[in-house]
Amino acid sequence: MFSFVKKHLRSFIILALGFLFFLGLTMTDERGGAPIFGTLLILLICYVVLSWIIEQWKKIRSLKSESAKAELMLLKSQINPHFFFNTLNNLYGLTVEKSDQAPEVVLKISEMMRYTIYEGKKDKVLLEDELEYLKSYIELHKMRYHKDVDIQFYHQIIGEDYLVTPLLYIILLENAFKHGVENLTTGAYIHISLIAGNERVTFAIENNFDPSEINENKGIGLENLQRRLELIYPDKHHLSLTDQDDIFKAQLELEIG
């Protein structure tokens, strides 16, 4: 009964105002005027106009919400091909070299693809799972390099389990390998830290690169990340990207409370 009344509340109000409006037509004051009629007419017009405005506002909000969801799904769909392209390139390099590590790499890639496909489609995942995913990605790259790369990963999670949007940090890590380590023959490094506490997660990464190999077109990765953050963490994130001389730094802070 309550749901029926709630659903048809506006119709009931219009009928009630219409009835009062009809009564107002028959009511006059001592001077023969009809002030009640005028007042009810204004109230009725105001109500109809206000109802229309509210209805249009709801439709616009609904359209914006559906548009944001569709855009977010598109951005998520772009992550898998981006990841697959990079990891399959890694595997190809090892098979050409006939490396004994190729079977192990195939296994690790399959595990990471499973995470990307099944966990990546979720709205939230445990931060600990994201951390393990990043570690696996680093190990995958270590297997294929024949040069010394200084990779340091400091991580600390304080307090209860944290839930974050999946596959945000991997974009920054991929960027560090692709535009840093890949183009340096010696002295390459990547320093990473992930600290969670007080309902805030801070991820920072620093790497060196060859200035002569600067590529103005950095692909969809960073643009994808920035747009996803705007949609998922509006006013609850801060992404800083800086490069000076041959050092690139990125820091992403998320409020997840």
N-to-C SSE string, H for helix and E for strand: HHHHEHEEHEEHEE
Number of domains: 2
- Tertiary shape: elongated
Percent of residues in helices comes to: 55-70%
Separation of the first and last Cα atoms: 38 Å
Which architecture of the largest domain per CATH?
A: 2-Layer Sandwich
Poorly predicted tracts of residues: 1-7
Give the total of beta strands: 7
Roughly what is the average pLDDT, rounded to an integer?
75
Rg from alpha-carbon coordinates: 29 Å
Looking at CATH, the homologous superfamily of the largest domain is Histidine kinase-like ATPase, C-terminal domain
Q: Count up the helices.
A: 7
Q: Within the CATH hierarchy, at the fold level, what is the topology of the largest domain? A: Heat Shock Protein 90
Main β-sheet: number of strands, strand sense, barrel status? 5 strands, mixed
Strand order of the largest sheet: 2-4-5-7-6
The chain-level structural class is alpha+beta
The CATH C-level name of the largest domain is: Alpha Beta
Task: Bin the strand percentage.
Answer: 15-25%
How are the SSEs ordered, and which strands pair?
Elements: H1 2-7, H2 9-26, H3 35-96, H4 102-119, E1 125-126, H5 127-144, E2 149-157, E3 163-164, H6 169-179, E4 188-197, E5 200-208, H7 221-232, E6 237-244, E7 247-255
Parallel strand pairs: 2-4
Antiparallel strand pairs: 1-3, 4-5, 5-7, 6-7
